[in-house]
Structure formats: C-alpha cells, structure tokens
Protein 1
Amino acid sequence: MSTTIIDGVPPGPSLPMALQTLGMMTRQRPFLERARRRYGNMFSVNIHGLGKMVILADPALIKHTFTADAKTLHAGSQSPLRRILGNHSLLGIDEEYHLEQRKLLLPPFKGQRMKVYESMIEQIAVDEIERWPIGTPFATTQTFQRITLRAILQAVFGASGRHLHELEELLPPWTDQGQQLSRFPQIQKDLGPWSPWGRFLRLRAKVDRILDELIEDARRDPELTERSDVLALMVQARRVDGSPMTNAEIRDQLVTMLAAGHETTAHTLGWAVERLTRNPDVLARLSAEVDEGGKAYRDATIREVQRMRPVVSFAGRHTQKPFEVGGYRLPKGVLIGLSAGLTHYDPQLFEQPDRFDPGRFYDKLPETYSWIPFGGGIRRCIGATFAHMELDVVLRVMLERVALEPTDAPDESWRFKGVAWSPGAGGRVTVHARSARTRVPEVAAAA
C-alpha cells in the first residue's frame, strides 16, 4: 500500500514570528517541547532570519537526513558561519569540495597523534587549574576557555612564543564578535573600522597575517615531517593531483577548528562542573575512580553531560531540491534543523531523561542517531575524538587536584552565545585542595 506524500512543510506553532524567535532565543527547550507534544517529532517553526524551519527529533528521520545525497541537502553554502569563517571553511562548503577538504584534514585526528596532544593538553590544564582560587566561588568557563584556546593554538596551529601570545590576545574577541555577527547578516557590511563588521574584518586580517607567518615558517622548517601539529600536516597534505592546500584554505580551516572546538569544549566543561556539583553521588564516584586510575565512568559522564547539555542544539541542512522526509516533500529552500535538544530528552530513547545518570553510558556507547552532539553522516565533526580526549584530560586533571564543593543551588540557566549555549553563571563553583593521593596507573587499574 502506497503512502501519500504531502507537498510542503509540516504544521507547527501559529504564534507570530517575533514570539517564536523569542522562544527559541530565551527558552528554547520549553518552547520546542510544547510544539513536540502537540505536533510530534516533526514540525515547523518560523524564526526571524531563518524563515520556515522544519524541526526533526526522531532518530530515523535524523539518520535519513544526515545520510541524504549531498547534492540534495547542503550544510555549508547557506550557513551563517560561511562569511565568518571564510569561503574555504569546512563548515561553509558542500559536495565534492567538502569531501576533498575533509579527506585532507582527517589524518591529524586519528591514531597515535591523540597521545601526543594528550600530554600537551594535560600540562596546559595543570598550569591553569593550579591557579584556581581555593574556597572562593568563581566561574569556571573563562578558565576552561583559556585551556581550550591554548590547546588548539599549540596542538592545531603549532603556535609558540610571540605568535602564541598574539593569537591568545586576538582570537577571543574575534570569536565573540563572530558568534554575534553570525546572527545578523543584515549588518555584515564594512562601514569603516568603527562598524561591527568593519572591526571584525580588521581583526581577521590581523589573525590572517600571523597565520601566514606560521604557514611560511612551517614550509621552511627542516623538521616539518617530525612535527605533530595539524598545521604542519596541512602544509604537507596533497590533493589527488599533487597540489598543496593554499594559504587561504589552511587559514580558513584553522579558524574553523578553533571556532568548532574552542568555546564548545570550554562550555561543555563548564556544564560538567554545573552538573557534578548538583549530583554529589556522581562526583564522589568520579573522584574515587580517578584515585584508582580508571576512566570508564568518566567517559560515561562526558557523554551524559553532552546529552543533557548539548552546547550546539541543532545541525542544519538546506534543501537544494525537493526532499522527502517523514511523509512530506519539502520544497527547495527549506532549512531543516536536526534537534539534539529534543532528541536527547526523548523518554522513548533515554529513560528519565531529566535525570543526570552517567550509568546509562557506562561501558555502552550511545546510539549513533539518538545522541548527536557532533552531528552525523559525512559531516560529523572531524574533531570529535580530539574533543572527547580533551574533555577527559581536563576533567581528570581537575578531579586529581581539587575537590568540587556540592551545591543545592538551582540549575544554571542556558545562555545563548550566538552559536553555542553556555551555563548562565559560567559553571560557578567553590573548590578545595585535595589531600595528596597516589593514583594507580590507568593500565594497572584496567587490568
């Protein structure tokens, strides 16, 4: 028996666009949950700057969309991040060019290179966390941002000395401005150095000059093949025809990796602190595991934080031609939003979804299309393994060196930063020094 396909978009809330936009910006999950209760796991919303957006929150529909033909659905060409990150950014390109660039960028994030990055990130985390104030409440997110920024600058950019310090000064304001400007394409006009877009472009020009110096230094480095940083590997990368990546391509991919992996990881760490201080039983078990040299429960905790507090709530796809999904034939020009925020809280997928329970992932990986903090399909984040390793290392270093003070304060609110969602109070915590302990090596503990 044939199924009738409906041409058009599914129904959704009838509120005015301004109110729907306000709901998405300030109370996204309650707004979307109300719509899901009424319309199911596929509905449309009407958002200022985006127009009609079809929301998907069913793993089967999400898989169907993630695995669709790249010529039918684009993720890059109409992305609001394309003008922010550059025309060559992995997040702003599609089809064959995207596959080519992805193939060139994947090798640095595989295999034994993670071990090299791990020791580097551990030292960065130790240096920062040992400066945390003892007994005084403070917001952790800013300190985590310093860790993740330096980690990317050293492991990915290969920056050191003057270049490292200059980029540490330039990139935080550039990232902040880029997140905000991505939401308002109408003001992306260079009206001089005092205009928002003008300031942003001039900051990017300063960043590009430093990146060009790093690229040229790498090309002249007689020990280039011994280096482990991602920039060095991009300089050595070759296309099928033997041609190298251009400076513009390398620059755009470097700032893309920064944008995709710096604040998102820092906010996830902030959310981890927020969750752990409100769940002392989980915190106690993690601390005991660290002392024993284990990591299985920490792995599960990282995945549970990403389930409960996905810092990027949607993966977007734009229809380039009619696309059938969920009984509808969506016309060309429709934005599809694959919702981590809804899928991760579906009680049919996760029992008691509002409960913080790392045990649901203990020695068990989440289902691919039910748990989507890194997207999916051929556009799944290439830095997912790097991000998980970084989260693991920083949490381990933190738990080894300080004791987090539990709190009965209400959950921190969600704050929208323009692209990512951060804890409203910045992952606020009071810490105390831990007494000296001898950790059992992880290999021995596993045995």
Protein 2
Amino acid sequence: MLTNIGLMQGRLSPLIGNKIQAFPVNNWQREFKIINKTSLNLIEWTLDYKNLSLNPLITTKGKKKIRFLKQKYSIKINSITCDCFMQKPFWKIEKNKKIINFLEKIIIASGELKIKLIVIPLVDKGSIQSINQEKKLLKICESLKKILKKNKVQIIFESDYHPKKLGIFIKKFDRKYFGINYDTGNSASLNYNMNHEFKYYGKRILNVHIKDRKKFGNTVRLGQGNVNFKQLFMNLKKINYKGNLILQTARSKINKHLEEILINLQFLKKIQNEIK
C-alpha cells in the first residue's frame, strides 16, 4: 500500500504568506533533491492562479527543467492539484474563457509530462453552491473529453458533498475521464462516515490525499486528529486500491518540514504493520 506514497509539492519549503499550501516558486527545484533523500519518489504538483502562466509546468523552458529533475532524482509526478481553480472556480464565473484555456493548457502539459491526474477542488471557495453550478461544471467537463483522451489524462474532483450526494454526482461523469480525489482530513473534519464514503463512491477514487484533521477543525499531525487510518487502509484494500497516497500533512511549527514529513511517514508505516 505504501509503494505509491508521495508528497504534496511545497511541503518541504518555507511557508509562503503563512499559507499551509502554495507553489514554492523559489524552492521547487530544490524539493526534488530533498525528497530524493527520503524513501519517497513521488511529488504531486501544485498550481496557484497567481502567476499561473509563469509556472514551470506551463512554460516550455519549465517543462524541460521538470523532465531533467525527474530523471536526475528518479522522482515521478503522477498528479497535479489545481488550487488555481479553487481560487478562480470556472463553474461559478460568468466570463470564464481565460480560465478554461488555462485548464486546457494544463491538460496538454500533463500529457507531455506523462502526468495522469488533475485534481480540481470543489471545496472552500470552489464548493458547489447550486444545481446550476453543478450543471455548468458538467457541461464544461463534457467538452473536455476529447482533449483528455488525446493526452491520456483524467480529471478528479475533491468535494465537500455528503457521501451519498457525491456518489450521485460522480455517476454523471464518464468514468473513463473523471473520478474522485479522496481527502482523509477533509472528510474527518466534516464528520463523514468513512465506510459510507467508500460504499457510495469508493470505486471511483483514483487519488488519495493523506492528512489528519480535528472534527470541524484544522489540519494536525497524523494520529492527532479524527481520521481512523486503520479503517482507511482496510477500505482501500477492499477496493484493491493501487493509486497514489499523497502526504498533504500539517506543516512544522518550527520550520523543520522534512523532519515533520518523516514523522508522519513513520506513523503510516506503523499503522500498516498493525493491520497486516
């Protein structure tokens, strides 16, 4: 289960503007070198809307550098979290052509870099508030199926919908091109029943964000919140999950970010050993 475990980009860099997550504009290359010193070999890329056109994933020069670093340090990038679309949700914005063009560029860049999954967060500012917003998202996504097929990329949604509602929602989308990103901490924070989540949409989960949160609270170190990690691994085993587990864990309060990651990684290994 821990063979495809990776790290959310930025977790090995200093905080930017006190944000728990942001693209590490001045440190992204160095993260490849740091992660190479751990047992991890996987990074999930992050995209912010600010300066999106300058992100190395978008530019020709940047993509060339990414390929070089992936090969040099034997690091894979299988997925991207598009916080840019949580910051500018195109299913809520009237004049959204520019934003959708960015999404198309991201899909093409993903194809070029062999990245298979694009996470679109339907949470926080991106949370779907009406049936019209949901219909608009579905219509836009339907129009992207050809470009997704051509680039061998899937879009996966991270949602705050109640488990049964999310199960109904994802059935509206073609499973060839769309799935679910399961976030352990967000579900615990919303006090959702994990067994119900896997019952209603478990077979559509293609990526997992690993973090811990208190009920209706903030992100904390793994084991200090309300996520039942033994139950998580058992549910993943039931659906024969072979995808990524991406550490999106709490940041170090004393700027020792690598040490914090290693503590959380050790916790996960301990849990897995306990359920063997």
